[in-house]
Each structure stands twice: as structure tokens, then as C-alpha cells.
């Protein structure tokens, strides 16, 4: 019996990877993804049934917003039963935010959703886009015993596959643009693609459930030596504020000045959620390890463990959008929902 070819849907949102030089103007413009095989003839050699859909108005990833995450999630949900895997072409600047958001929005995901992009346009001679796209498609189509190997939202970039909600973009100049310091990569592409199977999420047995209600009434308080009471108060007393990500020092430490603790206490009493995320790129928040974080724990600040900033923001949007009770949201923030933090 002839084995069916895996079906992969390619979704183009915008970004550098989909750009080519306009010979008339010399400027970059999006190319027609229906003629994708003309740009990348290697795709003809794939034993994959490839389809593509492009946003009507492709965007720069700097213009990414929750409404587009909803559009993406609904698009994946609409085609979920018709395809074995999905590849999302996306600008690299906010790719980690989108990957994190989708991980929360696509509950019970049991198929690969691979985000990729490039640092150079796909029509450029030295582009990294071709390899990134070709391998992302191969990973999205990869199966063992008729089941997908990857069953989560990932980012593929420069020979590495990462859990999407564990990544951040750390380099704007090198092809090796992403890091995942607190969680190992899921696969590495060389002569063969080597999968790190113990690190890959187990496939869910439940039915895919979309969460498309997001709330972005969130502020960020980035601590620094000498931060003023005036600015801190302005942020914490913002009208309509629901939650604050507080970017702290080291293992979750902050100033112990009375005015600072009092401002946080006042906000928490008003029902505002304070989520403690470290400024360090590696390591975790451990509230109470030092005296400078003990007071935060005592007044009800929620420790974010080793969650990334990108994942913290999108997790809050997702949980606030669920309209759950504040106590439930706080419990979920401290716990692991989609592999975004280590317990």
C-alpha cells in the first residue's frame, strides 16, 4: 500500500523571508507564494503535499498584535484536520512573542506548528531563508509510525529547532538569531535531522481547543538602580491596568525601599497581578532566596521561575482573556501550562 504524502500548510504573514528585489525599483517587495517553487526549486524534490496561504496585507513583524495572533490561530484551527503540519513564515523581531502566544492559544495541539523566517530576503544570494524554510517544512512533515514527531509550537532557525515559548531573539546581525537558554533545543539539522525526543512535548489526546480572547491591559516595570517613585506610581496606577510584568534583578530581586513595596502592595490590593520575571537571560526567579525578594513574596507578587519575557507577556494576555478569577490566574502563572517554565 502506497504511503500518503504528508500535507503541510505554509502560512505567510510577512517578514524578510518573503521579500525579493523588484528589478524595476530595486526595493524589496513580497513575492507571490503561489510561485514558491520558482524561488525554491528544491521543494519539488520533497515528498510533501505543500499548500500555501498568504495574508492579504503582509506585515512587518514590528506591527504584530494580538488580533493577528487570533487570525493565525483561527487559520490553523480552520485547516487543522486537513493538514499534518503547519509552517508559519514570520518576521524574526517578534517571532518569539507569536510562538509563545500560539502555544497558549492552541490547547491540546497534536501537530507541528513551526515558525521560521530569515535575516536576509529569500531572493538574496547568501540568504538563510532557503535552508530555514526547507528544513521547517521537512520537520512539519516528519512522522514516525504515521504520527508527527513534533506536536508543539516551535521556532526553527539556523539549524536548530526550539520550543517556541522558551525563545527570545538575541542577535539582529547573525543568522543564529535565537536562544533558548533555559530549555534544550528539540532538534538539530545536519546531514540528518537529529531529534531530542526526551525534550519534545507529548502529543495531546484531547481535541484541539482555540483560545481567541486575549487581554493586553498589561504594563512592564523594568527595574534599574535609581528608578523613581513618580514613574513607578504612574505605571502602577494606570487606568484599566490588569497586570504588571516586573523585570527584576538576578533571582527576582528588587529594591526594599518602603515606598516601592508600598506601591506594589497598593496595586495588589486593587486586584492588579504583579508577575516577577528576571532580567537575566538565563536562570530563574526564586523569591525568598535573598532578603531583597522575600518582601515581594510576602505581599503577593507571583514568581515567574525561568519564563521568558515574551512568554510572560503572552501568558498574561491569555489568562486575563480567559476571564478566570484572579486566584486561578495567579496559580496558573506560577505553574506550567505549555512547557513555558520549569516547575
Q: Helices, strands, pairings?
A:
Layout: E1 7-12, E2 19-21, E3 28-30, H1 36-39, E4 49-54, H2 66-79, E5 85-89, H3 95-105, E6 106-107, E7 113-116, H4 129-141, E8 143-144, E9 147-148, E10 153-157, E11 160-163, E12 168-169, E13 178-179, E14 187-189, E15 193-195, E16 209-210, E17 218-222, H5 229-236, E18 243-248, H6 258-269, E19 273-278, H7 291-299, E20 302-303, H8 309-321, H9 326-334
Parallel strand pairs: 1-4, 1-5, 5-7, 7-10, 17-18, 18-19, 19-20
Antiparallel strand pairs: 2-3, 6-16, 8-9, 10-11, 11-14, 12-13, 14-15
Helix pairs in contact: 2-3, 3-8, 5-6
Assign the CATH class of the largest domain. Answer: Alpha Beta
Nearest-angstrom radius of gyration?
21 Å
DSSP strand content: 15-25%
SS content category: alpha/beta
Element order: H for helix, E for strand: EEEHEHEHEEHEEEEEEEEEEHEHEHEHH
Measured between the Cα atoms of the first and last residue, the distance is 46 Å
Poorly predicted ranges: none
CATH fold field value of the largest domain = Rossmann fold
Strand tally is 20
Mean of residue pLDDT values: 91
CATH homologous superfamily label of the largest domain: L-asparaginase, N-terminal domain
Amino acid at each position: 500500500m502506497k504511503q500518503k504524502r504528508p500535507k503541510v500548510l505554509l502560512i505567510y504573514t510577512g517578514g524578510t523571508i518573503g521579500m525579493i528585489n523588484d528589478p524595476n525599483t530595486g526595493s524589496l517587495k513580497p513575492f507571490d507564494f503561489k510561485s514558491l517553487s520558482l524561488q525554491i526549486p528544491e521543494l519539488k524534490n520533497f515528498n510533501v503535499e505543500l499548500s500555501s496561504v498568504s495574508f492579504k496585507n503582509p506585515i512587518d513583524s514590528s506591527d504584530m498584535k494580538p488580533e493577528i495572533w487570533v487570525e493565525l490561530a483561527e487559520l490553523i484551527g480552520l485547516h487543522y484536520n486537513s493538514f499534518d503540519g503547519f509552517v508559519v513564515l514570520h518576521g524574526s523581531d517578534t517571532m518569539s512573542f507569536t510562538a509563545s502566544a500560539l502555544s497558549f492559544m492552541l490547547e491540546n495541539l497534536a501537530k507541528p506548528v513551526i515558525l521560521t523566517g530569515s535575516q536576509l530576503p529569500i531572493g538574496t544570494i547568501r540568504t538563510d531563508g532557503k535552508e530555514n524554510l526547507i528544513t521547517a517544512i521537512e520537520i512539519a512533515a516528519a512522522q514516525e509510525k504515521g504520527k508527527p514527531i513534533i506536536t508543539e509550537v516551535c521556532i526553527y532557525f539556523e539549524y536548530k529547532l526550539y520550543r517556541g515559548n522558551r525563545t527570545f531573539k538575541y542577535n539582529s546581525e547573525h543568522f543564529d538569531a535565537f536562544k533558548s537558554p533555559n530549555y534544550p533545543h528539540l532538534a538539530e539539522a545536519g546531514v540528518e535531522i537529529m531529534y531530542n525526543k526526551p525534550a519534545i512535548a507529548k502529543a495531546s489526546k484531547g481535541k484541539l481547543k482555540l483560545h481567541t480572547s486575549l487581554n493586553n491591559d498589561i504594563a512592564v516595570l523594568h527595574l534599574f538602580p535609581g528608578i523613581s517613585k513618580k514613574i513607578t506610581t504612574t505605571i502602577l496606577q494606570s487606568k484599566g491596568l490588569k497586570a504588571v510584568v516586573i523585570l527584576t534583578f538576578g533571582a527576582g530581586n528588587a529594591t526594599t525601599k518602603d515606598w516601592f513595596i508600598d506601591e506594589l502592595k497598593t496595586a495588589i490590593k486593587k486586584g492588579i497581578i504583579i508577575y516577577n520575571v528576571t532580567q537575566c537571560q538565563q536562570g530563574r526567579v526564586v523569591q525568598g532566596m535573598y532578603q531583597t525578594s522575600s518582601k515581594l513574596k510576602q505581599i503577593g507578587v507571583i514568581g515567574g521561575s525561568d519564563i521568558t519575557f515574551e512568554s510572560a507577556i503572552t501568558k498574561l494576555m491569555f489568562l486575563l482573556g480567559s476571564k478566570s478569577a484572579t486566584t486561578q490566574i495567579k496559580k496558573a502563572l506560577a505553574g506550567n501550562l505549555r512547557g513555558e517554565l520549569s516547575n
